[in-house]
Amino acid sequence: MSKPLYRQIAEAFEQKIRSGELDVDDVLPTEQSLQDMYNVSRVTVRKAIEQLENQGLVQRIKGSGTYVKYNPAKYDSFQLKGFDENITAQGRTAGTKVIHFQLEPAPSAIAEHLKIEAGTMIFSIIRIRTIDDEPEILEQSYMPLSLFPDLSVEVMQTSKYHYIEKQKGYQISHSRQDLKPVLATDVIAKHLNIKTNHPVIRQRSTSELINGEIFEYSVQYLRGFQYRFEYIARRGLE
């Protein structure tokens, strides 16, 4: 049995909003435009908008129009927080799936990032990070065996920062990060449930302990559907 037309319309706009095609404060087409677009009645259009309102995705402003109000999870680049900590603080549900966990000699390029000798044993880990059960980040991490001899799949399925600070007793200092837009490869697309060549954000991070030791080098690929970076630029005054 096919879905009612109002639900089909609502779900089409839900996808546009969650994918970022429609951004916060963007205005939806008028009711008349939607009637013409989908060849439906005004009642059907209003029921579709009502469903979006009930989901907290749009807001109708009398005399102005219907606006997108969906707010994705935000990442404050000036506060170093773990993924789980950041997402749960915003009332969302964070999840992690480890799809690769292996002990191996560090290739030269990875060793350079970790400031260790090539061939030193490291953990190579690939995880999928989810928000409200939707894949959002594909993460490849490299961590030295010398710092984390008891690292396990179970640990990496939970909060990495909690393990490092609470279980290992290390003090994290900072993380150096760079961002670049890239196109999703077949592998990235498969794990993030997007199409090949869809634009994603690549984030590379090198993280240090308070004593200057590098404890992780990671590369993350973000869909950007539910996760955004937030920057605050301040002008220094003498």
From TrEMBL:
Task: Tell me which residues make up the HTH gntR-type domain.
Answer: 3-71
Q: Which SUPFAM superfamilies match?
A: Chorismate lyase-like, Winged helix' DNA-binding domain
Q: Which InterPro entries match?
A: Bact_HTH_transcr_reg (IPR050679), Chorismate_lyase_/UTRA_dom_sf (IPR028978), Tscrpt_reg_HTH_GntR (IPR000524), UTRA (IPR011663), WH-like_DNA-bd_sf (IPR036388), WH_DNA-bd_sf (IPR036390)
Q: TM segments?
A: none
Q: Which domain of life is it from?
A: Bacteria
Keyword Transcription regulation tagged: yes
- Keyword annotations from UniProtKB, A to Z: DNA-binding, Transcription, Transcription regulation
- Taken from the record, one Pfam family name reads GntR
Signal peptide (from-to): none
Alphabetical list of PANTHER family matching this protein: MANNOSYL-D-GLYCERATE TRANSPORT/METABOLISM SYSTEM REPRESSOR MNGR-RELATED, MANNOSYL-D-GLYCERATE TRANSPORT_METABOLISM SYSTEM REPRESSOR MNGR-RELATED
What is the protein name given in its UniProt record? Answer: GntR family transcriptional regulator
What is the protein's species of origin?
Answer: Frischella japonica
